[in-house]
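Data deposition worksheet. Section B asks for the primary sequence of the deposited chain exactly as it was used as input, without tags or linkers unless they were present during the calculation. Section C holds the resulting structure in token form. Section D is free text for depositor observations; keep each observation to a single sentence. Incomplete worksheets are returned to the depositor.
Section A, Depositor: J.P.
Section B:
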Amino acid sequence: MSANMKDVADLAGVSLSTVSRVINDSNLVSKDTAYKVKTAIKKLDYQINESARVLRTNISKLVGIIGAGMDNPFLMKTLKSMEAEAIKENYNIIYGDSDGELEQELYYINMLKQKKIDGLIIITAKFSDELIEMVRSIQIPTVFASGYIKNPDLVAVTVNNVKAAEDVSDYLFNFSDYFGIIRGPYKDSVASEERMIGVINKYRENNVKLKDKYISEGDFSYESGYRAAQELFKKNSDLKTIFSFSDQMAIGAIRYCYDNNIKIPEDVSIVGFDDIEVARFTKPSLSTVSQSGAELGVKSMKLLLKLMNNESVTNNKEFVSHKLVIRESSKSINIIKS
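Section C:
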């Protein structure tokens, strides 16, 4: 016969209400008493009725996370750090991969709401009116990660994509009058568009016209980087430098150069974005913008925990740090770190 709450109370020598407080993480119980109750729960293998607890307290201890393409190494680091931070505060996560599709994002939001989640983190490449309206309507504390969202009432944590792209552009203009760009998909209204703003700013500052032939679209995959590099070299016979908006596409471009006897960095310099782990181990190793997926995850979860605990949040928009890391795939000069 399975143990019940009274059995736990008897073994721990406390009242039923004390056992209930411990189960519900109340701060009205001393550490010694809480330890006795938890020891009794473990010894009796008492199984807490989570559904009943949620009904009593309206607290599920669940955080929902919706991610776009979590096969991406950078985003996997982000997710793992979010989970680790949640566990520290006795929260579990429920994750759904939307692959960046609005229909899937809306589906997961509705499903997670039914699961009575306490908070939500959305990692997305685009902010549609429908998505924002849905987030506002569910009235669940929500943090957007990996993208800057201008709405003042919505909370977001991201890298400063504009400034990072400006840093790369400054660097590449040291070597050539223009540089090729492997951008993300045009439907990506966050990272790619923000990085394009940084590039455009520096083209204007250098009085260079940003021609369409300098830009090739990818989808953040290795294969698309290969194809995009092929297109850029076909349209620009004197191409000397390439800025790829992701490391995976940059590595695809490196492979294209290798297959076509284009030497790196002697013939062309390539810079990526994200500093995924494999960037250090490619041959040549990849110059890139380093941003911490772990920092993004920790900051996002900590911010969400504050919102869930009704703590005051002084800044609705937070940036994670970034720096330009120069490796073998591009020529070296003195770089100002960001």
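Section D:
The chain has a mean pLDDT of 88.
The chain has three domains: 5-57, 62-158+293-321, 161-290.
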